[in-house]
Q: What sequence folds into this?
């Protein structure tokens, strides 16, 4: 192996934290991965990894010292290769997409499948995190394009189009059938067990801001980390959940849940496309955005 290939193996082992996983990702044998690491350590004259029961950990005096520089160098090489390929109008390389689990499931799944079918040479890396975490990854060059719960205000990113609208509603299961068909004052929901998404999310902050303007304080009895789990709890009768209608259409249609109408209704939110502020969009990014009818 030449030195560049050795650094690629080093980076993969560091990222995976395991010789076995790195071998699987690189499509080479584990002994070949181990030998490459030893060869690079011999060339540099330092130990790059500590072999522990948890896997491969970067050493402070070696691995951690060069990891970021190697990552930057490999990214620049990939970017250069992509630039050459883009001259032929052929997306290639890796497209890193950041979004929440539910945005992936309910907004992006069809687009990702369509893009993959059209551009099979592009490797897709799907990075699931909350919208605030995704913004941080976008700014740190850990993803190429992000789909965020709006509003998203950050000077370090470039917001493009809104690609979906989310209608937050309150839903309940059969256990609360006595209020089905009624319109309740928003403050009246305090009489029932409430379920809400975690406090550090955009959706929760938007809800809190809206109720505060009305002088209403809605506190959850149960906080959950994702919408799908909340929907399951609501079906089981654990409480009245606040969830985007678009994320529980199946359960509403099947009659497992019903909408608890409130006065006033909650404001509509959106899902938007975001890019790094100063980075130029790759051809693959541009083609993915076009699936939503947008331009960079």
A:
């Amino acid at each position: 192996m030449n030195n560049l290939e050795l650094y690629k193996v080093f980076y993969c082992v560091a990222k995976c934290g395991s010789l076995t996983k790195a071998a699987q990702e690189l499509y080479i044998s584990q002994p070949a991965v181990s030998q490459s690491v030893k060869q690079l350590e011999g060339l540099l004259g330092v130990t790059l990894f500590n072999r522990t029961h948890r896997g491969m950990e970067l050493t402070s005096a070696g691995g951690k010292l060069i990891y970021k520089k190697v990552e930057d160098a490999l990214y620049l090489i990939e970017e250069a290769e992509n630039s050459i390929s883009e001259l032929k109008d052929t997306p290639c390389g890796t497209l890193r997409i950041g979004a929440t689990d539910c945005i992936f499931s309910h907004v992006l799944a069809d687009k990702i499948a369509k893009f993959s079918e059209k551009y099979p040479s592009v490797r897709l890396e799907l990075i699931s995190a909350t919208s605030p975490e995704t913004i941080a990854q976008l700014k740190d060059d850990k993803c190429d394009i992000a789909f965020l719960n709006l509003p998203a205000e950050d000077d370090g990113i470039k917001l493009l189009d809104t690609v979906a609208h989310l209608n937050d509603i309150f839903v309940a299961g059969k256990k609360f059938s006595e209020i089905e068909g009624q319109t309740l004052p928003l403050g009246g929901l305090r009489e029932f067990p409430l379920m809400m998404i975690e406090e550090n999310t955009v959706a929760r902050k938007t809800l809190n801001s809206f109720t505060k303007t009305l002088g209403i304080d809605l506190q959850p009895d149960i906080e959950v980390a994702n919408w799908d789990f909340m929907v399951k709890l609501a079906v089981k009768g654990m409480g009245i959940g606040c969830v985007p209608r678009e994320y529980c259409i199946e359960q509403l249609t099947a009659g497992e849940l019903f909408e608890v109408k409130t006065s006033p209704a909650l404001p509509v939110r959106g899902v938007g496309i975001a890019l790094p502020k100063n980075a130029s969009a790759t051809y693959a990014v541009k083609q993915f955005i076009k699936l939503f009818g947008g331009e960079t």
Summary: The longest helix spans residues 63-86.
